[in-house]
Specification:
Elements lengths: L3 E5 L3 E2 L7 E5 L2 E5 L12 E4 L3 E5 L1 E3 L2 E2 L16 H15 L2 H17 L2 E8 L9 H12 L2 E8 L20 H15 L8 E7 L7 H14 L2 E6 L3 H11 L3 H7 L7 E5 L5 H10 L2 E4 L1 H6 L7 H7 L3 E3 L2 E2 L8 H15 L7 H15 L16 E5 L11 H7 L7 E4 L2 E5 L2 E2 L4 H17 L2
Parallel strand pairs: 1-5, 2-6, 7-9, 8-16, 9-10, 10-11, 11-12, 12-13, 13-14, 14-15
Antiparallel strand pairs: 1-3, 3-4, 6-17, 17-18, 18-19, 19-20
């Protein structure tokens, strides 16, 4: 029999019927302990959670980890998306390599985990010469940290020289056949559809404006063949929505359908400028949307129609987005920003702290096609974040769950993945944070020296 651990008497738990905590066994939630009760079966260990508010582990559904090398880069600050990306792309293409990418991935994953994240997806689309093994690097780094990971194999196959709407320099793109062959390789090596899997794979042409229709269609066919997910950027800006109509003579959602992407396998980053018909169509087919509030505000891209999309049946998840358009990897901060921008768009009654937390947990899990994480319930994976309310910011807080969002929690005290402690006392196990900061900062200097 698996060892049973009682997470006992937390301040609060984001689960119904778990007032006295939960029992973990074999990497899963084995029992919820309601008020006035004790575990039904004997336990082997007790963890006193009297200092903690317990939530499901947060799930990050969109990121660009390599971009942490160019945070607050002087060439790109104080710009909206298109001037920003055209300013910064040459630095990425020329200077991102296997060595600094490994540090960028390690730093990003560490930051995510410290912010309460237990599962992540990184939309990595940059494969200059020498970085062909980017997916392998991410898989290795996630395994070392104990972070659950969807390896999202991105791609670019158009440059601005070939298409006036594309923005990638020539050194950033790959041939379609090379891309598809590597997609097959990564799926074969890492895609695990078993319950509780630590690694899965998604296929992710970067965006319809900088990849070919052939690549969109071929990745859809591969995803169907191997039972994996699909991901891309879509209508992050109004220009992209107009582009779909001008170039393809149809809406962005119709273009997805034309490419074989209108399926519940797919989730989309941003999804800001969908019209009402597109919202209904996406909901009808169960296409997910990753809301990236921090990046959308930083680049002044717009406000995602979260409430209309969710009402139509679209799973809504959260993502931190790029390390150079956020410019951090804190998913709990994104939860708070989702609440604030949601209230600005709608009103205080329409978007609650529970909505924002649901998007960052259960909604994100649905975007990744996972029903084994995202909630605290019997049979689910024991992926949980433990938050202390000891900081001054929480003094006087009456509702401990609401306080996490309204008072601005940003660092988990403990994080558990698959029943194993991965963060203790705010620090990831086995990570020298000082050394990581030094090595990453040293590697990033090349991007500044190139100015």
């Amino acid at each position: 029999m698996a060892e049973r651990t009682w997470i006992k008497d937390p301040i609060a738990t984001l689960a119904t019927g778990a007032e006295r905590g939960v029992v973990v066994a074999g990497g899963r939630i084995a029992e919820l302990v309601p008020a006035g009760a004790e575990p039904v079966h004997p336990v082997h260990k007790v963890f006193d959670a009297a200092r903690h508010v317990v939530t499901p582990g947060l799930v990050n559904t969109h990121h660009h980890m390599f971009q942490t090398m160019t945070r607050a880069h002087p060439a790109a600050i104080n710009k909206s998306l298109w001037p920003w990306i055209t300013s910064i792309y040459p630095y990425w293409t020329k200077y991102v390599n296997a060595e600094n990418f490994r540090l960028a991935a390690r730093l990003s994953m560490t930051e995510l985990m410290m912010s309460g994240c237990t599962c992540a997806s990184d939309h990595h689309y940059l494969f200059p010469r020498g970085l062909e093994g980017a997916m392998d690097i991410e898989a290795e780094e996630a395994a070392k940290l104990g972070l659950r990971m969807t390896l999202t194999r991105g791609a670019l196959d158009l440059t601005g020289a070939e298409d006036s709407q594309a923005v990638a320099p020539g050194g950033a793109i790959q041939d379609d056949d090379v891309i598809l062959a590597d997609c097959e390789r990564v799926i074969t090596r890492y895609h695990d559809m078993s319950d509780g899997a630590m690694t899965r794979v998604a296929l992710a042409p970067n965006a319809p404006f900088d990849v070919t229709k052939r690549l969109m269609r071929e990745t859809a066919a591969l995803a169907e063949k191997h039972d994996c997910r699909l991901h891309t950027h879509l209508v992050e800006t109004s220009q992209e929505a107009a582009f779909a109509r001008e170039k393809h003579g149809m809406t962005a959602a119709d273009y997805l359908e034309d490419c074989g992407w209108l399926t519940n396998r797919a989730w989309l980053a941003h999804g800001i400028y969908f019209d009402d018909e597109e919202v209904a169509k996406l909901g009808q087919h169960g296409v997910g949307v990753c809301h990236c509030p921090t990046s959308n505000m930083t680049l002044s891209s717009g406000m995602c129609r979260t409430k209309e999309l969710e009402a139509a049946g679209v799973p809504i998840g959260l993502g931190v987005d790029g390390g150079a358009s956020n410019d951090n990897s804190n998913l709990m901060e994104a939860v708070r920003h989702a609440l604030m921008i949601g209230r600005l768009k709608y009103n205080a009654e329409s978007v609650t702290h529970l909505d924002a937390l649901r998007w960052g947990t259960e909604g994100s899990a649905r975007c990744l096609g996972r029903d084994d994480i995202g909630t605290i319930a019997v049979g689910k994976q024991a992926d949980m974040a433990f938050w202390s309310l000891d900081e001054l910011r929480f003094s006087g807080a009456g509702d401990p769950i609401a306080a996490l969002v309204l008072c601005g929690a940003h660092a988990a005290d403990r994080v558990m993945v698959k029943g194993e402690w991965r963060v203790e006392d705010g620090a990831p196990i086995g990570v020298d944070l000082g050394e990581l900061r030094y090595e990453h900062g040293k590697a990033a200097k090349i991007f500044l020296e190139a100015l």
